[in-house]
């Protein structure tokens, strides 16, 4: 289930930048969409506190500390936040990562969530499947499809239109539970199942050894820590990328275009510079008289590495737009910068292949920046415009 959740989140967020033909982008310490306001396109928000009370007729993507959605969304919702509350009608799918997740209303598609505490309140209707990974999970909703739940404690008192699969240390199935398929649960002890429960299929108890439960608990905590770390790291990179972009806007745009058009050359330059600069610094230090130049070289090296980290997301989006979407005139704006960083950080998190993609784009970014620094300080025909 965790693989399904991870893959779905990564795929959905990966597709966002390519759906921004008509979109609204909002940032700031807080964002409030009033009841009488209507967004007729996709809406992307990066803010501390977000309150959506007006209708969104496209996709809604939000990264926020606190998020409240109280109006209808005609397409999908993807959100990440400390506290996420959704009390609305959503025509498409809902995918959420957060600390506390509370859901009520009607969801036309799937609901996928990762959180510390997850509640699907009574009266909530979900049209398709549900997959949840969390600490404490409480469900009183009506779900038409397959239900997969994994947590420390799980309480199910709703309707499942297909099989219900639960993996948890403590499991309770309430008196209002109705399950059209089988009930499969994995735990060290039998679940507390109310005698009023109706199960159309079989009830299958898969007993787990205590050590397996401890490992599962550790895995859940580890996933939570990693998710938090990824979110904080991504926000830091986004901040750095925005500062870099806003400070050197024209130069950054030219550098992205140049790097994309000469990707292979910059990749080779990046590899050479990445290896040669440290070696050259060691040689200079060994000569004693070259200590100061070596220190300067090392500082430049570290500076280029930091900038290449925030530049890689811009380069990635530029390359994808040109290669896959045949966009010759790539427009780099601050919303694209934000989305580029998010997508790139998600892509490099993909097991097995992510590190390689990250390495390739990081080296190409490193090569382009090293070449730009060289032109700026040792030649008179270019640079970042700084």
Can you tag this structure with a few keywords?
two-stranded parallel ribbon; 17-stranded parallel sheet; alpha/beta; 386 residues; 7 helices; disordered C terminus; elongated
Oligomeric category: single chain
* Largest sheet geometry: 17 strands, parallel
Terminus-to-terminus distance: 49 Å
| Rg value | 25 Å
SSE topology:
Layout: H1 2-15, E1 23-33, E2 38-39, E3 42-52, E4 55-56, E5 60-69, E6 77-90, E7 94-107, E8 111-120, E9 125-126, E10 130-139, E11 142-143, E12 147-156, E13 159-160, E14 164-173, E15 178-179, E16 183-187, E17 192-193, E18 198-199, E19 203-207, H2 210-247, H3 249-261, H4 263-286, H5 291-323, H6 334-347, H7 354-378
Parallel strand pairs: 1-3, 2-4, 3-5, 5-6, 6-7, 7-8, 7-9, 8-10, 9-11, 10-12, 11-13, 12-14, 13-15, 14-16, 14-17, 15-18, 16-19
Describe this structure in words.
The structure is a single chain. With 386 residues, the chain is α/β, with parallel strands linked by helices. 42% of the residues lie in helices and 33% in strands. The strands form 2 sheets. It has a 17-stranded parallel sheet that branches. The chain has a two-stranded parallel sheet with strand order 2-4. The protein is elongated and about 85 Å long.
């Amino acid at each position: 289930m965790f693989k399904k959740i991870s893959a779905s989140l990564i795929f959905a967020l990966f597709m966002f930048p390519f759906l921004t033909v008509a979109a609204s982008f909002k940032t700031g310490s807080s964002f409030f969409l009033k009841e009488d306001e209507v967004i007729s396109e996709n809406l992307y928000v990066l803010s501390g506190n977000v309150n959506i009370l007006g209708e969104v007729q496209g996709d809604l993507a939000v990264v926020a500390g606190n998020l409240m959605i109280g109006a209808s969304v005609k397409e999908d919702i993807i959100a990440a936040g400390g506290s996420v509350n959704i009390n609305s009608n959503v025509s498409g799918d809902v995918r959420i990562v957060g600390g506390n997740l509370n859901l009520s209303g009607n969801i036309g598609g799937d609901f996928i969530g990762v959180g510390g505490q997850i509640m699907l309140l009574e009266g909530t209707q979900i049209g398709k499947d549900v997959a949840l990974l969390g600490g404490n999970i409480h469900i009183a909703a009506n779900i038409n499809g397959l239900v997969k739940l994994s947590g420390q404690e799980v309480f199910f008192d709703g309707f499942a239109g297909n099989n219900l699969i639960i993996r948890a240390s403590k499991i309770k199935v309430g008196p209002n539970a109705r399950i059209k398929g089988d009930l499969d649960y994995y735990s060290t002890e039998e679940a507390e199942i109310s005698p009023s429960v109706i199960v159309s299929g079989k009830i299958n108890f898969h007993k787990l050894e205590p050590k397996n439960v401890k490992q599962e608990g550790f895995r859940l905590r580890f996933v939570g820590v990693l998710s938090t770390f990824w979110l904080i790291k991504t926000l830091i990179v986004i901040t750095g990328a925005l500062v870099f972009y806003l400070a050197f806007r024209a130069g950054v745009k030219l550098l992205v275009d140049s790097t994309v058009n000469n990707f292979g050359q910059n990749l080779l330059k990046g590899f050479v510079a990445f290896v040669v600069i440290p070696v050259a610094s060691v040689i200079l230090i060994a000569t004693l008289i070259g200590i100061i130049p070596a220190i300067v070289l090392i500082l430049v090296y570290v500076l280029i590495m930091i900038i290449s980290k925030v530049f890689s997301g811009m380069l990635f989006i530029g390359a994808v737009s040109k290669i896959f979407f045949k966009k010759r005139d790539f427009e780099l704006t601050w919303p694209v910068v934000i989305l580029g960083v998010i997508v790139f950080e998600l892509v490099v998190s993909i097991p097995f292949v992510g590190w390689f993609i990250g390495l390739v784009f990081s080296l190409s970014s490193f090569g382009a920046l090293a070449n730009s620094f060289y032109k700026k300080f040792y030649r008179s025909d270019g640079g970042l415009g700084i």
